[in-house]
Amino acid sequence: MEKSAVLMIIDMQQGMSWPQAGERNNPNAEHEIAELLAHWRSIHAPIVHVRHLSTEPESLFWPDQDGALFQDAFQPLADEKVIEKSVPDAFIYSDLEEWLRSENLHTLLVVGVSTNNSVESTVRSAGNLGFKTYVVGSACFAFEKEDFFGQSRSADEVHAMSLANLHGEYATVITQDEAFALLPKEHTSLSD
């Protein structure tokens, strides 16, 4: 029997909040992620924190510097799973799939940054691997970006297109309220 939906928080690192990261959308995303995290913790439901450690020395996420650290509000607790990655997809070169299956966890609720990069890449793999996957659109954010033809796209446009890429094929995009409804009011811990 499945234990619960897993809250997967992707790349909520200090560098994502720095001006160098670029113009972004969804300024309330951190608040929504924090609310979900507090609720998952209150009922001892499973949580996975994903952290990007770049292989590029000039990156904001180069290991052992402040940009790569988790933001204070999203520091993992000792009993929460941490996945470190050097590519956008949290399933590649990690034990994420093996851990989820060993814990009999088949449903993922994904939040974080950036919608069109690590979130989209990880969610595509999750869907392809057969996990029931949800994305809370308002608990993710993206940065402005030029498209392939050189036209500037706002962070809202990038975010919306990425959610459209995922919805219905790899995942179901849901609201914050729908995310809370995925969990019962009381839950037993993974050790039960």
TrEMBL record:
It comes from the Bacteria. Keywords: Hydrolase. Gene3D superfamilies: Isochorismatase-like. This is Nicotinamidase-related amidase. Residues 6-177 form the Isochorismatase-like domain. CDD domains: nicotinamidase_related. It holds the Pfam family Isochorismatase. Signal peptide: none annotated. GO terms for molecular function: hydrolase activity.
